[in-house]
Design a protein that fits this description.
- It contains 16 helices and five strands.
- The chain is of the alpha+beta class.
- The longest helix is centred in the middle third of the chain and has 18 residues.
- A five-stranded antiparallel beta sheet has the order 2-1-5-4-3, sandwiched between helices.
- The chain is about 50% helix and about 10% strand.
């Protein structure tokens, strides 16, 4: 982990072999023999979770083969073997995809990683028409690329920030006002780190992502702790509780829609239950617009 952090801090790409090794070790460590129907005959296990030979047995591969994979050597591994290992490790769909990206990275994505992310004009127009719903476009590295007036009223006027600071990871981990905004700050932080982990698997050569991870690792103990878990997941909807400085508590449902145009961007919207107190609070925020956060701090 220290070597990975040092590499990230210098802006060098994360070591894909190390990422693969640490991910497999972390997933194996969370399983117990009884979780997968194996008898545990050893009182004093030297390692947490399953042993390598137990995992290899479950996956139907040799111990030597699995050991090479866990050491970061995913060269020539087949999709069928990865599927077997994913089943043995009880991986979620998101974790399975992450394992595949780490073991069999797609070469064409290396060229895409460093490109500036652009939002199509039609999407910007769509955001502007959603005048009663906070909505924004988020891209790789948790970058906030575009937003509407209601999103500025709810989350703060991102137009006042330098482009490099319009980033959910930086806002949540480095800005105290965002720690106050999210009632369940820990869960929001976990969601962001899980998304960044998935980005790192898809784009192992993204130096800007590596620099972001390095910066957050240096500046935030919470980020270092969560990054070390190697957890990945995709969250497409749910309930988010906020404490806005102007209107107080809100309970909002969010929906995340991944665009299918290959841009690695997503549209995120928030809405309140009809005739709820939160719906009334959103109407009040709409009347203030982007001035809402500034008005609350006067």
């Amino acid at each position: 982990m220290d070597e990975q952090r040092e590499a990230a801090a210098t802006g060098r790409p994360l070591d894909r072999r190390a990422e693969l090794s640490e991910f497999l070790r972390s997933r194996r460590a969370r399983l117990k023999p009884e979780d997968v129907g194996l008898a545990d005959f050893g009182r004093h296990r030297r390692v947490p979770g399953l042993r390598r030979e137990e995992l290899a047995q479950l996956a139907g591969v040799s111990v030597a083969y699995y050991t090479r994979l866990e050491q970061g050597n995913g060269r020539n591994v087949s999709a069928e073997v990865l599927d077997s290992i994913a089943r043995a490790l009880r991986l979620t769909d998101a974790e399975h995809a992450h394992l595949t990206h780490l073991a069999k990275p797609k070469a064409h994505k290396k060229k895409q990683a460093g490109r500036q992310q652009q939002v199509r004009p039609a999407l910007r127009q769509l955001l502007d028409t959603m005048d009663a719903v906070p909505a924004y476009i988020v891209g790789r590295r948790s970058e906030i690329l575009a937003w509407n007036r209601m999103a500025a009223a709810l989350f703060g006027d991102w137009a006042q920030l330098p482009p490099t600071e319009r980033n959910w990871a930086r806002l949540v981990f480095l800005r105290p006002d965002y720690r106050d905004l999210f009632v369940d700050w820990e869960q929001k932080a976990i969601d962001i780190v899980c998304t960044l982990r998935m980005d790192a698997g898809c784009y192992p050569d993204d130096t800007r992502l590596a620099a972001l991870v390095g910066e957050l690792s240096v500046k935030s103990e919470e980020f270092r702790r969560l990054w070390a878990t190697h957890d990945v997941k995709e969250k497409s909807h749910g309930l988010k509780r906020l404490h806005h400085p102007l209107v107080g508590d809100l309970a909002l449902n969010f929906e995340s829609f991944r665009l299918t145009d290959g841009s690695d961007q997503g549209l995120v919207t928030y809405h309140a239950e009809v005739d709820s107190a939160s719906a009334e609070s959103l109407r009040l925020l709409a009347s203030w617009g982007a001035d809402a956060t500034r008005a609350a701090t006067r």
